[in-house]
Amino acid sequence: MICQACQSTIDPSDSWCRKCGAPLGQRVDPDNERRFVTILRADVIDSTGLVAELGPEEAVSRLEPALAAMRGAVRQFGGIVSKELGDGLAAVFGAPIADDNHAPLACHAAIELVRRVASLGDPGLKVRVGLHSGHVVAYMVASEFSKVYEIGGPAQHLAARLEAAAEANQIYVSEACQSLADGHVRFEFLGPKVLRGFNEPLPVYRIMGASDLSSWRVRRARSISRFVDRTTERTLLARAAEGTSEIRQTVLLLGDAGIGKSRLAHEFGQGLRADGWSLVAAECSPNLQGAPFSTLKRVLLPILEAVAKDPDDPADPRKDLPAIQQCALDAVLDFPISDPQWNDLEPDARRRAISDASCAIVEGMAHRQRTVLLIEDLHWIDRASDMVVAMIASLRTPGLLVLLTTRPDGMPVWIASCHAEVVAMRPLDDDSGLAMLADMLGPSETNADLKHRIISHTSNVPLFIEEVCRGLKDSGTLRGQWGDLALVRPIDELGIPASIQGVIAARLDRVSKQERSILQIAATLGPRSSEVMLRKVAGLPEDALQNRLSTLDRAELLVRIDSELEDALEFRHEMVRQVTYDSMVEKVRENLHARVVTALENDEAWRDAPERLCYHATQAKDWQKAFSHGRSAARKCLVRSAYADAADYFEIAMNSLDKTPMTRSREADAVDLRMEARMAFMWSGCVARALELGNEAEQRADAINDVGRKVAAMTVRASAQNFYGTPSEAVAIGEAVVRLAAEWGNQGWSNLAQYGLGQAYFVAGRYHSAEKLLAAVRARLLDPEAHAPIGTTPKYLLLLCCMMSSITHTVMGELEAAEQLQQQAAAIAEETGRPYDRVAAAYSGGWLMLGQGDPAAAAAILEDGFVLAQKHGIRLFVPVLACHLGMAYLEQGLFERARGMLTEAREEAKAVGYTSAVLRSLIYLALATWRLGEAKAAQTMLREARNTARQQGFSGLEAEALFGEAVVTPVTSEDNKAAVLASLRAAIAIASESGARPLQCKAEAMLAGMLARGNELS
Predict the structure, then answer these.
(1) What residue ranges define each of the domains in the chain, with the CATH number in brackets?
(2) How far from each other are the two terminal CA atoms of the chain, in whole angstroms?
(3) Is 24 in contact with 15 (CB distance < 8 Å)?
(4) Closest by alpha carbon to 525, among 465, 555, 565, 492?
(5) Which pLDDT score, from 0 to 100, does residue 963 have?
(6) pLDDT at position 142, please?
(7) φ, ψ for residue 139 (rounded to 5)?
(8) Which stretches make up the Guanylate cyclase domain (predicted)?
(9) pTM given for the model
(10) Cβ-proximal residues to 681 (8 Å cutoff; 6+ apart), any chain
């Protein structure tokens, strides 16, 4: 029995092939996959008019020559005709086997297509062509009699629209294709054009012809970095050059695309040229693989031209050759041949004559002057030239260095027989990679993190480093000139530039389908995985798995590494993983992620990794599991005080749950989840989102007629309203919620509702009411049987009550009571050790120190809290801590420092949506501004704060603003004096009613002083 995948012999009793691991009894057809390709669309213009009056046979005869010419042009340059359209065709380059030159090949095919149709001699046959490079889904369509390779996706529509827009015998190209083929092909920019089906005009280019630049010159022109390192390789090359004094030396530089083979070869060749060597450089072209002797012609022409131009050596190197060898050279160089003897030769004799003549020319040059013959990209050499180059590389002529380059999949079969030294090119080391980046980005340390990210992302492959940097500059992420670039915005993903996607895809296509499946599983698992987990997901026989892993390790795609993780596997660089992952169609990805979820859930070591489980469940679109693991991940983040991360996971959990079937149970879970999520959003400063969650939960609870959950939702909404809305709104909803909670009888939610209402009273300036309610809640929470709602503990709620009560007593001047409550809050924070609890205790502690007249101690406490809040993302506290820290600096006479901190506090409060904090920061910012000599600006700010506080019902803050106005207004006129007196009396009235005794006393003292001075003006 034969395995259909690898053709090896297998035991009929096996269900798996022991060699490749393919399941037996199944057909092996190409899977659907995503590919980055270039699409060619071409058709005959007005074909309907050409055949309208013809019979079927005549119509076919009229159009078939054009279609045949199109097919021939596409196939000449390695394209696949994916669909014929009657009067045209669609073709794809770069699939099913990836080719990093797909865009230049498609452009050359388009040029040849137009030429071939024009050469038919039928003036009525005019074609138009459209080209676009992009991602497609490639798949095999099988019918009863045949299979057709087709592509799908938006990219093909753009190619079709470009084709439709093109003029007769013109080739229109998208910007994506032009950027990949630029240098190999000449383009004219036509400007933005409106194409049918696209909302915005798109840039369009027209092909003007093939470029005469060599591939090396194109790469050199694009290069943005200097040549670095390669000390080992240069030493080997130098040793080979020295050895040519005795006999010809051949060196093959072997490495993947982008590794720097050409750069090293040309840098070394130019160095020899400077030392008096003659340099002959030629390259094999992917466009000319089908043209016999195309590479040999590029070798011979520069030798013959160099001799012809040298006045010191007028001799024609061909004159001493036998006549038949001279004809052989003329045949290679496409010169006319009149000697009938040549025409009578058998093909083998002709090939032998060409080889002998070519070797003689090269030997003659080496005799005259030491020569380095550089032939690049042997993986693209035409078959006819390959035989001749093999003979040249085997010459024994002294003074000749044959320097060759190739990719691993293009290693010549004759390389061993010519005793060549093979130099395997490796990526740069980290120091050399950083040297490249310093040359491109600049030496500044400000880009140090970015440089290290690029090194890790590209694994120090020079081309990849260059193209990633170019992409960042072209996108505007890096600004400036090469050698002095600055990062202007954060980078989430470095991505894979289009120019190197084909390079990586071509490497992946070297491995078998079975090995590719292992790569896909590893890519799904992440940049690093364990062999144990890969084995569980793959479900392969051990021998088959190890064979595949060994192949991938040798190919340096997925390698074994030394790690604390047993049997760790890692992609050589992240780009390989990304291209592998991106090549999978959505259904394949979902299936693999689902298998990973199952494997992780069944592994004891991974059960406490909800973040990873959540990611894979979400990618698998298993919404029930995504909800469950997302909620677990959010809870885990809350435990470690990662509130922003917790909010993200709660969002995933909520969105995932909403994608499950609608049931009453689902809706109940949705409400509960929003209740639990409220703290993560509040603490991370997403107050508006917390308010939305309350509204959403209330509506959903109403829809299922669940009173208890409605009360909970209203409580959440009320808590958010304390920060986001006006005091009157917060008090109104708070009082309603307290009544409903009492009727419902759930003590936990009742405690939270009453705490929220106490906070609302405080914000509204009703300090007596606030303390009375907070005291009642505190008393209940001290009971060992105390209750708190989901997502909260009684101890945490008690801490908040102590914090809020201490602040309230401080504002009321009852410092002894405030201190006792602050000690309770600090003790709880010390006991729990949670960052949030410590920040809350620091906030009330700083407020107490300010009330006790010790601003230095207040600043020390608040600074610690401020740093802790920023470190752990407790953004809700950042503006109020910054505000009171600014107040502490102000009272110490550190006016500039105070202004800076209060400005930051106000901006943070605005960003969070913390209304009262915006006003309080503005009031004390005005006082700092006044202290710095800007009285008018301070007056304007305080007037704004007072009016806003009055309009929105912040009576306590209105009193503080009024007192501030009295302080900063100079009593230089009767009008000013009257305004100051009015402000003081209004502040006293509000402070007296609210219970803000310290503020009342300060205002009364200032008022008494002014009245004592009578009519005196300052």
Answers:
(1) 1-30 (no CATH), 33-210 (3.30.70.1230), 229-424 (3.40.50.300), 430-508 (no CATH), 511-584 (1.10.10.10), 882-1016 (1.25.40.10)
(2) 110
(3) yes
(4) 565
(5) 94
(6) 55
(7) -155, 160
(8) 38-163
(9) 0.79
(10) 647, 650, 687, 689, 690, 693
